[in-house]
Specification:
This protein is an alpha+beta fold and 168 residues long. It has 5 helices and 6 strands, in the order αββααββααββ. A 6-stranded antiparallel β-sheet has the order 3-2-1-4-5-6. A hairpin with a 2-residue loop joins strand 1 and strand 2.
Length: 168
């Protein structure tokens, strides 16, 4: 049990590139991975094929930091694995529960298929609005912001930084 808790508390590390700098932080674009390990080895579920086919956009996120970063710097960011797990559960589980609850309640009351479908859609929409509001509150709290783990590559030609590999 303690080993499971330790695994959940370990940070998730992701590489990213600085695309904009502000007074209190920087905007990053994750370099992401093309699907899972099996996909990258050509024997997986095919997510990487869809990513290449549809040219899915890179993820942009805000990193609050007082570290001196410049556009083009490459960094490693860390996010609590627990935060990722909790966010994933809310994002996937709550809408599913809303959909099923809405459909089952309307089915029990009216026994009409088209009303059941509308009830399910209403439950889904309500759950999505709830999750959206919850995510907005969490974003304002800063609880789910990533932290700067390491600066792996400084933008060339920046005289204010001597090393190209610094740990923070």
């Amino acid at each position: 049990m303690n080993q499971e808790r330790a695994t959940i508390d370990q940070p998730v590390l992701e590489t990213a590139r600085v695309v904009a700098v502000e007074a209190e932080g920087a905007w990053l674009e994750s370099e992401g991975q093309s699907g899972c390990t099996n996909c990258r080895e050509g024997r997986g579920c095919g997510v990487s094929v869809f990513q290449r086919l549809f040219r899915l956009p890179r993820h942009r996120l805000y990193l609050p930091t007082h570290e001196s970063l410049t556009v083009g710097d490459h960094v490693v960011i860390a996010l609590s694995q627990r935060a990722v797990l909790v966010a994933s559960l809310w994002l996937y589980f709550a809408p599913l529960v809303g959909l099923l609850t809405g459909a089952l309640v309307v089915e029990a009351l009216f026994v009409r298929e088209w009303l059941t479908v509308l009830g399910g859609l209403a439950g889904l929409a309500g759950a999505l609005l709830f999750v959206h509001g919850r995510q907005q509150r969490q974003a304002r709290s800063g609880a789910f912001f990533p932290v700067l783990h390491e600066i792996t590559l400084r933008q060339a030609g920046d005289p204010s930084h001597e090393s190209s590999h610094e740990s923070v």
